[in-house]
Write a structure and sequence with these properties.
464 residues; alpha+beta; PmbA/TldD fold; six-stranded mixed β-sheet; 22 strands; 38% strand; globular
Length: 464
């Protein structure tokens, strides 16, 4: 009998029984996906997938400290389960003492649904969305434009068991929609995207209407040189920048002088004002519509995660509060090294504290500036300042006297999100958004549009 035919919690229990290590953590991830793809106003493919990944973390005590070994495999059969456990133990015995070693977590109550079957998605998740998308295809064809894109829904049930008695389970639904509209000659392109838990809140007609408006804006083309421009960044662009900032906010690296959050002499910038606006950047595993795991799930150790912290409860954390830096990411190990509070990373991000203005209202209040659609190909240039570079994509528009008057060429930008927070003069209404650049890794974000008076468009790009 294959491991996939057994219940996940039984696989976790059996792996723990097989363990001969001093400590053991077993993580079973049950993956279920459904997707649709379309091109030229017609569906091209659709499908569903199922899978399981099993991760075993063995810890071995020694004279120099505790070592850990991590092995992950998919499609493990019952006959292969013991070899997986032994491989993790062998890896631990062959490794040196783990720098991040801590006692495995204890005392967390068992999830009431730990022994239940995993949750699954199916094509039924698109039962309302697909007909509405078909209607959008018909409108697009009649209007002389082409729609391209994809919709993906994933449901991951994660089971965590440890030799210290933890039995935890979390179900994580994640949905993304990306929609492109193109003119028949392919010279004009517009993009819209959204994240969702179940596709019940996705309106293809509204997205298509917005794309139609943007393609109309692009009928007039204006060439602009590189330079600094007053720029309106939509929520998706703000999310892409601040997610990278969060990924770069490890307390240990900051305390050791390697990041934008460092101060000379081993200090960090915690307590420093990063923005003159009362902006708050926070994460909360129970944020409505953006719910994520309420406990640590770590398949490997790194700068912002530790396998020893698996099962550690997570709570709401304010990274920036009313413009002031309050927390940097810590594991139990790095919190001890730096003397900073324990603040593990959390799977969502929210920026709030702006006005109630929509992006459209901010456009109406702009004398002359640029309106972006989204960013892509973001890469780090300098970790000391968190200088990032990247490109604009699928529409940069010129705003004059409160109206969009045409499309301009794309640009390469060079900016630090930390600097941008300090130079932002307006933030609007916070709304759920899809970070386009990072959507393969991070989908749960809510951001406002922001106004930056001098966004650095460092060079002209020829991309569409």
């Amino acid at each position: 009998m294959s491991a996939r035919t057994n219940k996940p919690h039984e696989i976790v229990e059996r792996a723990l029984e097989l363990s001969r290590a001093d400590g053991c953590v077993v993580i079973a991830d049950e993956h279920s996906t459904a997707n649709l793809r379309w091109a030229g106003n017609a569906l091209t493919t659709n499908g569903v997938t199922r899978g399981r990944t099993l991760t075993v973390i063995a810890t071995v005590d020694g004279k120099e400290g505790t070592a850990s070994g991590v092995v992950s495999r998919s499609a493990v059969t019952a006959d292969e389960l013991e070899s997986l456990v032994r491989a993790a133990e062998t890896a631990a015995r062959g490794a040196g003492a783990a720098e991040d070693a801590q006692p495995l977590v204890t005392g967390v109550p068992q999830s009431p649904d730990f022994t239940d079957a995993p949750a699954e998605t199916s094509s039924a998740v698109f039962s309302d969305f697909a007909p509405a998308l078909g209607e959008s295809f018909a409108r697009a064809h009649a209007g002389g434009r082409e729609l391209y894109g994809f919709a993906n829904h994933e449901l991951v049930s994660t089971y965590v068991g440890t030799s210290t008695g933890l039995r935890l389970r979390h179900d994580q639904p994640s949905g993304t929609l990306e929609l492109n509209a193109k003119s028949p000659d392919r010279t004009r392109s517009a993009w819209a995207g959204c994240s969702t838990r179940d596709f019940k809140d996705v309106d293809p007609a509204a997205l298509d209407a917005e794309l139609t408006r943007r393609l109309a804006w692009a009928e007039r083309r204006v060439e602009l040189p590189a330079g600094r421009y007053e720029t309106l960044l939509p929520p998706t662009a703000v999310a892409d920048l601040l997610i990278y900032q969060m990924w770069s906010a490890g307390a240990r690296d900051a305390a050791e002088g390697r990041t934008v959050f460092s101060k000379p002499g081993g200090a960090t910038r915690i307590g420093e004002k990063l923005s003159g606006l009362p902006l708050t950047l926070r994460s909360d595993p129970h944020e409505p519509g953006l719910e994520t795991s309420p406990f640590v799930i770590a398949h490997s150790s790194g700068d912002d995660a530790s396998v020893f912290d698996n099962g550690l409860p997570l709570g709401a954390t304010e990274w920036i509060a009313e413009g002031e830096l309050r927390h940097l990411t810590t594991t139990r190990h790095s919190a001890g090294l730096t003397g900073l509070p324990l603040a593990p990373s959390i799977g969502n991000l929210v920026l709030e504290g702006g006005t109630d203005r929509t992006l459209e209202e901010m456009v109406a209040n702009t004398e002359r500036g640029l309106l972006l659609t989204c960013l892509w190909y973001i890469r780090e240039v300098d970790p000391a300042t968190l200088l990032l570079t990247g490109l604009t994509r699928d529409g940069v528009y010129l705003v004059e006297n409160g109206e969009v008057t045409g499309e301009v060429n794309n640009f390469r930008f060079n900016e630090s999100p930390v600097d941008l927070l300090g130079r932002t003069t307006e933030a609007g209404r916070t709304e759920k958004t899809l970070p386009r650049e990072w959507s393969d890794w991070f989908t749960r974000a809510a951001m406002p549009p922001v106004r930056v008076p001098d966004f650095n468009m460092s060079s002209v790009s020829q991309g569409v």
